[in-house]
What does this fold into?
Amino acid sequence: MSAAPFTTLTEFRDVLVAATGPDTAAQAAAEARNGQLTKPPGALGRLEDLAIWYAGWRGDGRPSLDRPQVIVFAGNHGVTARGVSAFPAEVTEQMVLNFQHGGAAVNQLSKAFGASMDVHALSLDTPTADFSIGPAMTETEVVSALRTGWEAVDGAADLLVVGEMGIGNTTAAAAIAHALFGGTAGDWTGRGTGVDDAGLDLKTRVVAEGLAANPGAIGNGLEALRCLGGREIAAMAGAMARARVDGIPVILDGYICNSAAACLNAAVPGALDHAVAGHVSAEAAHGAVLKQLGKEPLLALGMRLGEGSGAALAIGVLKGAIACHSGMATFVEAGVSDE
It folds into this structure.
């Protein structure tokens, strides 16, 4: 475990600002190799771009993908007291036990694609404060969650997926999106776990109240994370930041994961250069957030489970891209004419 090199939000931002970019020499080598493989130019479509992108972040023109890591973070939200979810907060802890016992969808997908999987529950017995009346977290609380995320990352991993569990967190994600991207509360608020029309109206009002109660979050990524987010959302942001610093590529999951990513992106331009979007979920505003982040999803399968499940499934796509790039023969090696 690598101790997080920050104790304040300012220090956290400074760490992100200082992070270096991809290895341009490795990227150039990957591009050159891609041009010599036994296929017509561009025949593998986005798989070619993915392999070159991955090579740059791994510093290897002919990379492998052998140690993907999936981390699920769980947290409880005080805003659930407003009745914004179709399920009670107790479900968060129950699902954590399911993850730990290997019974969730993300467990199966992680196993299918050879990923290790870790679960971190963050103070489930102490929900965040109700953000509809004030900040969800103090700076100390949000920094603690960021540090948990940072320190959960395996430095030897060569790919990271972060997922979440937290009843009420689509409300938090909607509030963050509203704060960072503007529009109306209704533009960003969806049914989450399946609230009815009356529940959706209430949820939308709560999101609007959250912004009114926390005006400092508007346009400010780290304040949006502190005032409107949850511990699991902050932990995801911390893990993604660690991956950015260590050159570990990231596959983004759904709406909640992308709300965490949006906070990093708003805080430091380029903070998500090491990340691709695994999928677009069925949660109404996820596609709009991806457009704001400039990320084109790899998959569109109507998933809306969370947990990191969509991103875990997309590990297979990236593995396929790397396998083709690094395993295919060149024209010279295969004795095939490239004329």
